[in-house]
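JOB MANIFEST
job_type = single_chain_structure
chain_count = 1
residues = 275
[input]
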Amino acid sequence: MRPRSVIFDVYGQYLRHRGSEASLQQLSRLLGCFGILPATVRVTLTRMRSEGWLRSRRLGRSSLYALTDRATTLLNEGQSRIFHRRTAPWCGSWQMVVHPAAEASRRDRESVRRQLAWLGFAQLAADTWIAPDPRRADTLSSLPHRLPGAAVFSARSSGLAADRLLAARCWDLARIDAGYREFVQRHAPTPPVCEGPPGEGSRAFVERTRLVNEYRRFPFQDPDLPHELLPPSWAGHDAHALFLRLYQELREPAWSYVDAVLETSARDRTLPDDV
């Protein structure tokens, strides 16, 4: 696991529920569980601060690092995509984003692709992206701001059969389904570390962080299609249920370890509803 990814996961799953602030020494101890050296932690924090993801302040001889508003927004979006799945029936409408990609540089086109893929859109044509909707109104309203020149429309096809063909054309559902099946096969046979002798808390913290780090790749691949558009026996449902179960089973020992490192007072150790 890359130090940068671990830092985002630690802030996203833990530190933002504890004031979003931690010292260099505390972060070094937490990342040390993954074999990441303190010097690497320091360099990574400095880079993330210069990129606008973290801010820092001095408190005595310690440096404290906290999330910026930009980072908090990113983590909130990621939390929603990772932990929540569509349950409501589909209204049959598609959202279409038209963006003049041909006029942009290669780097900008790749940035557009990543942003829209994260939001659940797939490329239908060179300048056109689609996603089944309704999507969050705040996400849609922010698209023209995020992607200058973008236009957002709603549309319908000729019917459900055409919708399913469109979904199969725009997303590699077989590959995504295979990825979910691999996740289930890898994690279902082995129960997580939930309790035990001293040291199990740090193991639970590592396992829980690795679990999130592995599972969060799926929102980049899976647009969370309505069940009306999914193939039969979609493994994503089982994979998501397994992920949530393991995440919850590791919750208390992992949080106990993090709170011990942060020296959180007993009155502040209430566990957040972090799913």
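[summary]
The mean pLDDT is 84.
The two ends are 22 Å apart (CA to CA).
exit_status = 0
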